[in-house]
Queue: 3 jobs
Job 1
Amino acid sequence: MSRRKLGQLEAEVLAVLAGADGYLSPAELRERLAGGPAHTTVNTVLFRLLDKKMVERLPRGRGFVYRLVADESGLAAERMFTHLRLAHNPSSVLGQFVQGLNESEEAALRAFLAKRGEGT
């Protein structure tokens, strides 16, 4: 089994929490993450996200449950902006990004750009 970088796991945890209807325990989170990361690894990610004020937690039983309080789309966009701004050739990065889109993602991007071009 290949190991994920902590930043990748953090992004996956954020995505799972964003899709949840409420609070999740670390065990519930683990069940929804691909590859079954260790319980301690999930807790480490949750503690870091709590420290960054991206999640909140409440006591439940003998442990805690967590939910996302940050805007997931804003966080993802900021990561993309950061990589784009640090690139030597931002146009090439954008080209690679667009080439990697599936049909529905490309259609959503085209629709957004068209709407933006209309001034709305």
Note: The chain has a mean pLDDT of 90.
Job 2
Amino acid sequence: MQANGSFEVKLAPQPPAPGIEQASLGRMTIEKQFHGDLEATSLGEMLSAMGQVQGSAGYVAIERVTGTLHGKRGSFVLQHCGVMDRGSPQLSVTVVPDSGTDALTGLSGSMQIKIEDGSHYYIFDYTLP
């Protein structure tokens, strides 16, 4: 199955854990509102690091998504792993195995994120038992 739509995201910088500021790492909370085939909200956290060269960075994030996917209600967790290598992006967003609840129990899949003209879009390829 495939779900498509748009989403808004709010990132809020958080204070680093004690001693972390010396490692040049960032931490943010994530809030999203999904629209389309996935009507949901999510909350999560992100850790990031900038490289020594302009356009190089990395991030990891975990977010719990709660709502309906093609009308099926439940929640699931997405895990992000992103790298920017001198401006060239690579991103993996995957459903954490066995994180689905209620009508989304057994959900698996991966999500692509597209940003066009400042708007965010998702393409979510998934399977349900």
Note: The beta strands are 2-13, 25-36, 38-50, 57-69, 72-85, 88-95, 108-116, 119-127.
Job 3
Amino acid sequence: MRARWWVGLSLVGVLAGLSGCGDADGPPPRTGVRGTVTLDGAPMAEGQILFLDAGGEGAPAFLDVKDGRFEGDVPHGKKKVQILSFKKGKLKTGEEDPVGVQVVHPNYNRNSKLTTEVTGSGATPSEFNVQSAR
């Protein structure tokens, strides 16, 4: 009898412990954000803006930039921002580069220090002024 009681109590403990595994709150809420990107003082023709979780968790949100504007849903929280834009280019072999050449200076993508805070009212800041790689 004691053995059954102990096994039953142990099972309840294991199940209670398992219920705490994972993210009980679910994914973070998302909010529609919109903003602008200028490249060398003019609206960036096209590219992407990435919102990466500042804590290194979660998948990044990629939004397209067209005519200097971006819009889309991004999870709440502090985000690191990276801005990308590519133009056609040639490989050393003379063939067309399938990816293209990065137009935006690395200080705004690979080495970016840009940040924003996404809340229920949008992203602050939502305007980003970047320079070309030249």
Note: Residues 16 and 22 are 13 Å apart (CA to CA).
